[in-house]
Amino acid sequence: MKQFTEEHRRHMSEAQKGKIISPEHRLKLSMALKGRPFTKEHREHQLAAAFTPEAIAKRAESVRALYQDPEYKERIGKSIKESLNRPEVKEKRSKALKEYYSHPENRQRMSEICKQVPHDDEWNRKVSESLKGRIFSEEHRRNIGKTNCGEKNYGWLGGVSFLPYSHKFTKHLKESIKSRDNYHCRICGAEDRLYIHHIDYDKLNTDPLNLISLCLSCHAKTNYNRNCWGEYLKYKNMEFVSI
Questions:
Q1: CA–CA gap between residue 166 and residue 200 (Å, rounded)
Q2: CA dist., res. 81 & res. 117, Å (int)
């Protein structure tokens, strides 16, 4: 193998700076280097040169410049989607994820990370937009249900939802509460699909001051941050009844 002096290498490097290499030329270089043996010293030198602060900054700048090109972003996005939709890739990713989440410490780590993500209205909107039009198979829906039911669900409270209601919680009582609330959801004002919610989450407490009309969406919201919702709805009910 021909040896070059450091000065000669420097001259060659200076001559190549700013030179635009065509895709055909890149392909020829790649084919020429395939199977070429490199010494251990050469590999170590290349690795050290690739991770210098200057090299990292240069790569970051070139990547930013590439992603400012709409055509490049579209082409890369399409390529990634096509690759991820290949059956063999899906199967490989599925196995890798199952293996990763089979370890309790990994599930705990991801849970802590998700808790730190601020789920504000903007975040929820982006998630909603990304899922629009997405079609899930029946098997996928069943698997989602299995992984989020019972004790696996982060809202699990020991099975209190299976406890029976009081015998006093009748249709007549529910209708009277809806009439009292003027057939409106007491949170958002919706008029359709009203439910009667127990403010203290005790199914046996049928005191009218403990019952309030909520729409389906708001009723689902009250299953989280129960202490805050309990105080808020108790105030809403007292304010309404005192009028």
A1: 14
A2: 25
| Residues composing the chain | 243
Q: Which residues have CB under 8 Å from 210's CB, separation 6+? A: 198, 199, 200, 202, 237
Q: Is residue 101 within 8 Å of 107, Cβ to Cβ?
A: yes
Run of H or E including 213: strand 211-215
Assign residue 201 a region: left if phi > 0, alpha if psi is -120 to 50, beta otherwise? left
**pTM recorded for the entire structure:** 0.41
Place of tokens 């082409």: 75
Kind and range of the H or E run holding 198 = strand 194-198
* Domain spans, the chain: 54-110, 166-241
- Give 145-190 pLDDT, tens digit per residue: 777 776 666 666 666 667 788 888 999 999 999 999 999 999 988 8
Measured between alpha carbons, how far is 159 from 171 in angstroms, rounded to an integer?
Answer: 24
